[in-house]
Specification:
Pfam families: HD, HD_assoc_2. InterPro entries: dGTPase-like, HD/PDEase_dom, HD_assoc_2, HD_domain. The chain has 19 helices and eleven strands. The chain is of the alpha+beta class. The strands form three sheets. Strands 1-2-3-4 form a four-stranded antiparallel beta sheet. The longest helix is centred in the N-terminal third of the chain and has 32 residues. It starts with a strand and ends in a 5-residue tail after the last helix.
Amino acid sequence: MFKNKKGILKFVFTANIFLVIIISYHEETVITMYIRDAVLGFIEINEKERKIIDLYEFQRLRYVKQLALTYYVYPGALHSRFEHSLGVMELASRIFDRLCVKRKKILRCNFLQIGLSIKEAKQILRLSALLHDVGHLPFSHVGEEVLPEGVKHEHVTIEIIKYLKPILDKTFFEGITEVIINILSKEEIVKNLTILKRIISGSLDADRMDYLLRDSIYCGVEYGRYDWQRIIDCLDIIESESGGYDLCIEHGGIHALESMILARFYMFAQVYCHKTRKIYDYYLSHVMREWYNLFVKNLIDITRYNDISVLNFIENTVREGNNHLYEFAHRIKFRKQHSVIFETSDFCDLPQLINAKKVFDTLQEEFSDYEFILRETRGKIHNFLVRESQKRENVGEKFYVLRNNRPYILTDESLIIRNIPKNFLNTRIYVAYKDKKYERMKESEIRKLIKKAEEIRRSFDNGKKI
């Protein structure tokens, strides 16, 4: 099969990962390369895909941290959107290959209706997965907070892909850019492409599968581990109510899927919404709002910047001193964060939110020597449909389980997923000295404020104020 079975071995060192690229020459002179990934092992890419990976717009992702300043808590969390994007492409490919083993005739017929072969459909899927995060701002989701209202990183991604249209169409085939945009955008999907969209973006997709595994490994925690191989092995397709095909899972894969959803909750609680990480998100959002207004004139401009750009801006702000951003920049540079003295449960309800705000207001009134910050943290654990008869919610994605070749709603089959809350919601109160801003508070003072905040909360729980 190979003209040169040994191939050519090249070693390439990068900022965060060690890549081993093995170039093999096929009979059709198609060059296949393998990137050594810390999470998934070898990731195969072809020569055309490498041209896209080598573009500046994609290489920029090497310098956009996946988890912003989470490395202030978990020192190993230095991985980037670059390797995550490669990982999503690889997992999407493995899912597609598994589905083809089970339903190749159905999928071939589905794609032929819009003039695509199985090979072309897979290439579209791989490119869509590869480019799905190309629009992330510096520090990933934290940077997203500074975008104009209603604009998310997905919108930036679409604009960048449009900008790359001449290269994409020339490298692959005319019109591939529009197909990728249709898959990645929020607009109505061409029904025959539905299955490709579900593989990349859905309640169970390659994106979530990769970042849970990757974030867990690089943070050095066990919370995000789950049996992803079993999930892929059990995936299947089912006719979509809107046309085309959706993902579903065989009954034997339910436990693996449950472990993934639980892993997502634990990662929210212990990593994504960690108290220290969230206060640095707060500082960063203030700095980045000013940075964005100064330097970014349009969405394509974002491709000129990465984490290093913002860190340089922070460094210059600290050096210049005495401006409205100095405090935030100083706290980031020297790791001088506020301390937590109050927090709700991870699934707090409206009464808890109201009481947290009352505690915050009362503390501000009674302790004028301190600076208090109220921060609310939200996250989506899952979006599976839960029937009204089981819970009040009757919205969400209808995801099916195949049992004896018959489809059943997932939350009818899984008690765990049915009962776990869909949304993560936590509220915290942080404190620091007002005059001695950057001095670490004494433990005795923190304990005193924690005790006082709890007393205030209990008083409001009992319907009266102390």
